[in-house]
Amino acid sequence: MLVAGLTGNFGMGKTYVLSVFRDLGAVTVESDRVVGILLNEAKVIGRMAELLGEEVVGPDGKLDKKAIAAKIFSNEKLKADVEAFIHPLVLARIDDFIRKIRRGETVVVVEVPLLFEGAYQERFKRIITVYTTEETAVERLILSGCARTDALTRLRSQLPIEIKKRRADYTVDNSGPKEETRKQVETIYRLLIEEMKRDA
C-alpha cells in the first residue's frame, strides 16, 4: 500500500483531481467529507459553540457553516483554535479508515487542504499539489457562489501555492482543460503504482 497526500489551495481543483484518481482505481479520502460528518456530531457541535459562540448553531440544532466561515476567516486566533480542535479528529478518522483497507497493491490518495499548514507531510509517502493561478481560482470560486472578497480572503489565509508546489513530490497544473489535467493525473498514478510495486 502507498498512501499519498493531495493538497492545493481553494478553488484550484483538488476535488476534480481526487475524482480522477478514484476513476483510475485509487482508494480516495476527502477530508472535507470527514469534516462534514464530524460537524453533525453532538459533541463537536457543542465544542464549536463553545469556541465560536452559540450563534453558529442554527434553530435546527445544526452548525451553520456560513456563520463558522465568516468567523474563522476574519479572526486568526479563532481559526487556529477551530483547526486545533477539528484536525486531530479528522486525522484519527482517516487513520481508522486506512487501517481497515485490505493490505496489498493499493494506492490511497487522501485530500488534505491544509497539509503543509498543519505540518502533516510526514504522514504520507508522497505529496501531490494541485495548482492554478490565483485569478483562475478566484474566478472558479465566484462561479460557485463565493464573493470575490471572500474568495481572496480564503486563498490568502493559506500557504502560497508556489511554496506548496516546491514542497510536493508531484504537481498537477489544473489551469487548462480537464483532459489535460486528467493526463497529468494518469501519469502520476502510474508512477505511484510502480513505486508501490517496487517497495512491496
> What share of residues is helical?
55-70%
So how many helices? 9
Report strand %. Answer: 5-15%
Name the CATH architecture.
3-Layer(aba) Sandwich
- Shape, please? globular
Arithmetic mean pLDDT:
92
What letter string, H or E per element, gives the SSE order? Answer: EHEHHHHEEHHHEH
Number of strands: 5
Radius of gyration: 17 Å
Would you identify the regions where 5 or more consecutive residues have pLDDT less than 50? none
Reading off the top of the CATH hierarchy, the class is best stated as Alpha Beta
What is the third-level CATH name, the topology? Rossmann fold
CATH superfamily: P-loop containing nucleotide triphosphate hydrolases
Question: In whole angstroms, how far apart are the ends?
Answer: 8 Å
Number of domains: 1
Specify the structural class. Answer: alpha/beta
Q: Biggest β-sheet, characterized?
A: 5 strands, parallel
State the strand order across the main sheet. Answer: 2-3-1-4-5
What does this structure look like?
- With 200 residues, this protein is of the alpha/beta class.
- The protein has a single domain, classed as Rossmann fold, CATH 3.40.50.
- It contains nine helices and five strands; from the N terminus they run βαβααααββαααβα.
- The protein has helices at residues 14-24, 31-38, 42-52, 65-72, 76-100, 134-143, 148-156, 161-167, 178-199, and strands at 2-8, 27-30, 107-111, 126-131, 170-173.
- Strands 2-3-1-4-5 form a five-stranded parallel sheet, sandwiched between helices.
- The chain is globular, with a radius of gyration of 17 Å.
